């Protein structure tokens, strides 16, 4: 099944259940200060920005498999104003 999204907002809404599932996992691991927007922003800026032809399953997989410590470091660096782009 092919999915086409006209905006990032449409895609965000579509993957919201995966984001919520990841947030629940993070909360169980005591990463309580993370929001779904943080996961979305991190992946958008660091993982997906240079990717082409991502499938919906690729995006959901990235959300589910994001490393909690990497995400926490991203948030910490963001607060400090440090560039968070992966090389």
User: How would a textbook summarize the main sheet?
Assistant: none
What is the radius of gyration computed over CA atoms, rounded to a whole number of angstroms? Answer: 13 Å
**Total number of distinct structural domains:** 1
The secondary-structure class comes to mainly alpha
Q: What fraction of residues sit in β-strands?
A: under 5%
* Poorly predicted spans: none
Mean pLDDT: 89
Give the end-to-end Cα distance, rounded to a whole number of Å.
33 Å
Question: What's the β-strand tally?
Answer: 0
Share of helical residues: 55-70%
SSE ordering = HHHH
Number of helices: 4
- Which descriptor suits the 3D outline? globular
Can you offer a commentary on this structure?
This protein has 87 residues and is mostly helical. It has one domain. The chain is built from four helices and no strands.
